[in-house]
TrEMBL record:
The lineage of its organism: Eukaryota, Metazoa, Ecdysozoa, Arthropoda, Hexapoda. Signal peptide: none annotated. The keyword Zinc applies. Residues 12-87 form the ZAD domain. Keywords: Metal-binding, Zinc, Zinc-finger. This is ZAD domain-containing protein. PROSITE patterns: ZAD (PS51915). InterPro entries: Znf_AD. GO terms for molecular function: zinc ion binding. The keyword Lipid biosynthesis does not apply. GO terms for cellular component: nucleus. Zn(2+) binds at C14, C17, C60, C63. Pfam families: zf-AD (PF07776).
Amino acid sequence: MGSLDRAVLTGFICRLCSEMHRVVLHIYGHEGIRLNISEKINKYLSINVSPSDPLPKTICNNCLERLENQHRLVMRIEQAANLLKGH
């Protein structure tokens, strides 16, 4: 059996929507760290996640997609602001 850091976990509760999903991604696993999930949650949402809190450490694909869309929107807005400021 492989490492949980490299695996997609199944049958867990999403930290953001609190629904049970068959497929979730571990926020602090290899892929979650690569995608900066915890940093994006802490930056864009009105909640804070940390490895030591007692709440679920998984995120479902739907919430991950919404989080990534929010990240792309903020990046686009920041780029536009910099362009308009002449940077």
